[in-house]
Automatic annotation (TrEMBL):
Family matches, as SMART domains: OMPdecase
Lineage of source species: Bacteria, Bacillati, Bacillota, Bacilli, Bacillales
Location of the active site: D60 (for ompdecase activity), K62 (proton donor), K62 (for ompdecase activity), D65 (for ompdecase activity)
Protein name: Orotidine 5'-phosphate decarboxylase
Its EC number(s): 4.1.1.23
Domain Orotidine 5'-phosphate decarboxylase: start-end pairs: 5-230
Annotated catalysed reactions: orotidine 5'-phosphate + H(+) = UMP + CO2
Length: 237
């Protein structure tokens, strides 16, 4: 069985909308993702509330700055007691190592350090766009693998990528190394701004460690039922 539950992206603008969404899940203990949209409006108090509700939390702030700034920011974020945080691998190995040190120093003694993962190429990026706008002249897969290697060598726990790249990463990077994969859509769903999308079944088949699902659940007519059906697919043997 997969160790991670499907991670629900709580991309809402307010605490009220977030809590009313979560109330539909009654006693279910969830793994939720709080990203920029919600955190910039609600801050640490919502994190404390989600923890009190018994949910695990991926705080997705995608830090990308000079090493000293990321070190200090991570030291502060570690005190929130979340389960996972992230940076952009494009910030480089010194920045990623500084992030890790900040997290280690900021984690209360006796508590578990949050997992630290790095975004490779966003799932909203296509190979064409990467070549044209970032002037990277390799394939998208090679760029992702390079970022994954840099992340692994910097001592982090894994990467954010599309499940389409999970097998490639497994072939080149020693286990255990997490592949946390957004860009999940059910058949027939709108793709929206995502470029590299797969279904939950495909993500499981390709060896993703955890799926991050936003709009397929949050915009569903029946979010609880949709979540449970994704969870069943994800946890099937
Ligand atoms: O770090 C992330 O979570 C992330 C990285 C990435 O490459 N692509 C990506 O979509 N995400 C996040 O995953 C969620 C995907 O949402 P949906 O497209 O609505 O399922 C959003 O909250 C994004 O911010």
């Amino acid at each position: 069985m997969n160790i991670f539950k499907p991670i629900i992206a709580l991309d809402f603008p307010t605490e009220v909308e977030t809590i009313s969404f979560l109330n539909q899940f009654q006693e279910e203990s969830l793994y939720v993702k709080v990203g920029m949209e919600l955190y910039y409006q609600t801050g640490p108090s919502l994190i404390a509330q989600l923890k009190d509700m018994g949910h695990q939390i991926f705080l997705d702030l995608k830090l990308h700055d000079i090493p000293n700034t990321v070190y200090s920011a991570m030291k502060g974020l570690a005190k929130l007691g979340v389960d996972m945080v992230n940076v952009h691998a494009a910030g480089g190995s010194s920045m990623m190592k500084a992030a890790l040190t900040g997290l280690e120093e900021g984690t209360e003694s006796g508590k578990k350090r949050p997992l630290l993962i790095a975004v490779t190429q966003l799932t909203s990026t296509s190979e064409e766009q990467m070549k044209k706008e970032q002037l990277i002249n390799t394939s998208l897969n090679e760029s992702i693998l390079q970022y994954a290697r840099l992340t692994f060598d910097s001592g982090l726990d894994g990467v954010v990528c599309s499940a389409l790249e999970a097998k490639l990463i497994d072939q080149h990077i020693a286990y255990p190394f997490l592949k946390i994969t957004p860009g999940i859509r059910l058949k027939g769903d709108e793709v929206n701004d995502q470029k590299r999308v797969v279904t939950p079944e495909e993500a499981r088949e390709f060896g993703s460690s955890a799926i991050v699902v936003g709009r397929s659940i949050t915009k569903s007519e029946h979010p609880y039922e949709t979540y449970m059906s994704i969870k069943n697919i994800w946890e099937a043997k």
